[in-house]
Amino acid sequence: MASGKPIEVGIVGGTGYTGVELLRILALHPGVHIRAVTSRADAGRPVADLYPNLRGYVDAVFSEPAAEDLGACDVVFFATPNGIAMKSAPVLLEQGVVVIDLSADFRLKDADEWARWYGEPHACPELLDEAVYGLPEIRRDSIRSARLIANPGCYPTAVQLGLMPLLENRLVVTDRLIADVKSGVSGAGRKAEMPLLMSETGESFKAYAVAGHRHWPEIVQGLVQMAGEPVGLTFVPHLLPMIRGIHATLYAAVIDEPGDVQQLYEQRYRDEPFVDVLPPGSHPDTRNVRGSNRCQIAVFEPQGSGQIVVLSVIDNLVKGAAGQAVQNMNLRFGFEETTGLQAIGLYP
Amino acid sequence: MASGKPIEVGIVGGTGYTGVELLRILALHPGVHIRAVTSRADAGRPVADLYPNLRGYVDAVFSEPAAEDLGACDVVFFATPNGIAMKSAPVLLEQGVVVIDLSADFRLKDADEWARWYGEPHACPELLDEAVYGLPEIRRDSIRSARLIANPGCYPTAVQLGLMPLLENRLVVTDRLIADVKSGVSGAGRKAEMPLLMSETGESFKAYAVAGHRHWPEIVQGLVQMAGEPVGLTFVPHLLPMIRGIHATLYAAVIDEPGDVQQLYEQRYRDEPFVDVLPPGSHPDTRNVRGSNRCQIAVFEPQGSGQIVVLSVIDNLVKGAAGQAVQNMNLRFGFEETTGLQAIGLYP
Amino acid sequence: MASGKPIEVGIVGGTGYTGVELLRILALHPGVHIRAVTSRADAGRPVADLYPNLRGYVDAVFSEPAAEDLGACDVVFFATPNGIAMKSAPVLLEQGVVVIDLSADFRLKDADEWARWYGEPHACPELLDEAVYGLPEIRRDSIRSARLIANPGCYPTAVQLGLMPLLENRLVVTDRLIADVKSGVSGAGRKAEMPLLMSETGESFKAYAVAGHRHWPEIVQGLVQMAGEPVGLTFVPHLLPMIRGIHATLYAAVIDEPGDVQQLYEQRYRDEPFVDVLPPGSHPDTRNVRGSNRCQIAVFEPQGSGQIVVLSVIDNLVKGAAGQAVQNMNLRFGFEETTGLQAIGLYP
Amino acid sequence: MASGKPIEVGIVGGTGYTGVELLRILALHPGVHIRAVTSRADAGRPVADLYPNLRGYVDAVFSEPAAEDLGACDVVFFATPNGIAMKSAPVLLEQGVVVIDLSADFRLKDADEWARWYGEPHACPELLDEAVYGLPEIRRDSIRSARLIANPGCYPTAVQLGLMPLLENRLVVTDRLIADVKSGVSGAGRKAEMPLLMSETGESFKAYAVAGHRHWPEIVQGLVQMAGEPVGLTFVPHLLPMIRGIHATLYAAVIDEPGDVQQLYEQRYRDEPFVDVLPPGSHPDTRNVRGSNRCQIAVFEPQGSGQIVVLSVIDNLVKGAAGQAVQNMNLRFGFEETTGLQAIGLYP
Known about the structure:
Four copies of one chain form a homotetramer. The first copy, chain A, is of the alpha/beta class.
């Protein structure tokens, strides 16, 4: 399918930041045709009206979700708030459509845990088991044949890629991992809410949700699978006075002398097109990956207190959302994995 | 030449922001091979060491300018401070190399005026007449056959594209034009200077060089050619607390009832791939064109005081520098004009 | 009254940025007692809960406007959206309370013009004539005895102070004045609106309301009074990617040889405690006045096209709102004019 | 001395950010007279020329250090780069001048450790023992009678105030403390260095000096004194894309059930004028303390992995430098501790 007729793509909830980012990427993807972009709030309005950066690249008009025959698409992306995809996905799956959900609806395997963190019962718990968690670096083969792909959260992507080599190789104490993570404000989405105003978030910095954040169970679930044992994680998210970018600073206590950790990371990610392990002593800037689908990682061996420190950066809207979703689509439909995702980080 | 063997490209002065931006664009251009990137200060250092966003895309190592046989290139870009290109270009031109100069050395036609504004005599005044001012929207045909292309300044690009339709059609009073122009700090280049520190330019805004700025004579020269008569211009540049983007707010008093100015702009730029006239009532954000080679323009007909107001935005490093240089290269070497320049503005 | 018992102060609408800024200033003012701070939305909540910077300085709890005996105050500030003060002021005035309105309700003298720009009939047109426009630099004496003070808008303050000496001395052509004005986002207030999000306004710049802005008639009204003749003004506001600060760049064509304009400005403002004319050649940064009640002005005599260029900066929340309101209160109640307003601009 | 004649103050190295911040604070301090402000680079230039925010408040002219009779001052502040104060302090102390050093010269007790981290032998190791570490919250009494005060670093202030109650009460495991700390760029000082440019630090975030930072031994020295036992600390500093503010996120594993940690913090700091413990569940923004001398702290009891998380914010130039220095001066000279330090955080 990688050559020949383009695949038909639908996007549900195209007005948020992950939606417009999907459009920015897919508009230049040689193998897709954007068939429908739905938005209840902006139905009838040309996409490029709302997003003038897309003028001339995207001709689509936002449509009512109901008005579209999404069942005729090959793949439908959900770039919707949590709780929407789980209501629509079952019908689409029955119609043979591949569903890639950028929300949290299919990320957790345990329906009760989902209900606890998201405040309502899950609408189709029977699909949770089938859903493939779309982190290609650990689940590439399953993604190639998935019907339903749960695209990972932005924080979970940065944290899991950062800790994966340590956990897979059982080098660190797993019951007291620490993830101190910082995100640009676009990670909070495009919502008219007071705390997201420039006057509230500019020139200031704070932690939030220290008592508990929805990405915590998603990260723990992933780390447990890597480690093959229970995991204790303290996860503290922070809001950066900037727009794009996540920086995870990860702390893990070594069990014994850990060996050459740098080399371990380089080997683990040698064949990964979107994970770039920096040379020893480097500190990745989030801007290195701005607008790109890359994760850059640096690893520092223990200072005084026996902690390995890992630095992991992504663009929350690309590798943390829309870019990873397209990477998953590429895998699923037999495109070259990097198709449409070659953009280089915008510096400065 | 557009198909077949890639052309050989040299970049002199690759460590500044226009240099790295050239690399970001050329690294994905299908028709070029980057043969040499010179930098006196960083010779011997891999380019991607200095610019980690280019890791895996650019293998080049910075080299001493003298050490390179730039004469074997098809085209050499000068991304150097003013005063360098004029000393090296003559030799390269004799060797049959096309020179695209991103500095100011060949922009002014009058050597005395050049000397007045740049503080030293011009090194090769005999080339000023031949040099083609590389603004494709007004000089496309000359560019196609030029040996020496003077790539326009960032402010001059935004201002000239904004005023061109008015002046070509003699709709406005030309002796009191006003250009109130605002630039992100990357326009000042990558120089370790106090006024460019984040602590100095962040969260603050100011005008500078109100008494006179080097882009003034360049703009005036261009406007005079469009208008076919003398031009009086007040030009006030300002520094924005952000990195990329120029916004020109232009004021011109109408002579008579000006007719449908919106339509005039749309027609003038209908076939231009990189000038986008927005619908009536729009206000372009600089972010619409961040990382893209586009100029977006909006035009407002007179309010009370008989002034047409034009808003014109570009990314100073792309359409205002490296992107326009590649556009010129494409024209000169028979590539599709948009090759390598398809990137969509990064929003948000 | 300047010594002895503090005056009783009420603030209506204390949850916006001008409200919290009033509190920040008044909390350290030695001559006032904050008796009531009302807010319909946050009634019952301690002020310092919402604004943790005020913890320990302001003990007040937001109250329902209706629940307060504002009539027992000496002065009531309205820091409300437009259209509120005009409904409540008459009753307070009857009770002998001095009203200082930071909204636009009493700024225009012409009730029809008010209705045209603000979209509803004025509720008490009979008070418009009595209301004193609270720009101390031109109306100090009237303020000292006013019952009702219309505190000027932020843009109008910067523009009027910038042009005043030119107009009072009839040095410039008045029918084609240009004010190109840039504001930090706090000028738009504390409202949960999409265009004010950090992701929308950060790292970007744009003009807005080019077709017409509510501050235009206010500015024109003021300029006409200074000039003593009709005035034509083109006014273009822009949104800066920063929080506090306004920078007005003003263009006025000279009539004849204007003489020593620098000296004219220095003399005009010699005795003004809050207007600071910079030495020739200076360019004021908005940060110079961040958090301070100052206006800094620089003036440049004509370049080529016969335009005087004036640069005028203020902090939109201080001299452009709350600080000027306290300056007016000081004048009205016989305090030293600078009481509580000594803060020095926060640099860097 | 608190009433009567003002004390005579000298500032050595007044052109950096801590220098101008000292001037901003001292200019409004009722008990001091600024006798001299020295700067080798800017000697002869009025202070307000370089810092237009100080126009009208500070009349001083920068002078050559040698040209001043600093020995006639009551107190001299060193706002110099490391390595200067240690050469000048001994003479001043002999002349009976109190020295408050804002650099690192007298912070470490161990001269060898100082030499290791600062790259040269210490010039007066015999004074290290006498020097009082100027953190009033733990050493108020010693400060009152000190001749030589070592003003703490910005990171060490935020970290020590954040961990003090836990260590003093032996509630946590001391051999694996983690301090993940983020600073605005003004913390790096006013130096014309490439990495501090707005184009380099804006809209991006990174860790730095993970392999070792000079504030590490200073923090460890302080924590050891609080804990009364050896301490293992992993300290990772980061650079925020903003100007002022430090946010420390601190992780400490509890030994047993820790009891009511919130109450412990509130009691520890109940009488501290500049430490403000927030209510349970709060997350301090750095902007709460922008321009103020406060430290705001929030404490969260263990999540899953047995870690107490403490959030501690200061303005790096105020409580982290100049404000704390004035607080120390107030203590030393018998002023009210809060004199000149009442400014409320600038929000928004």
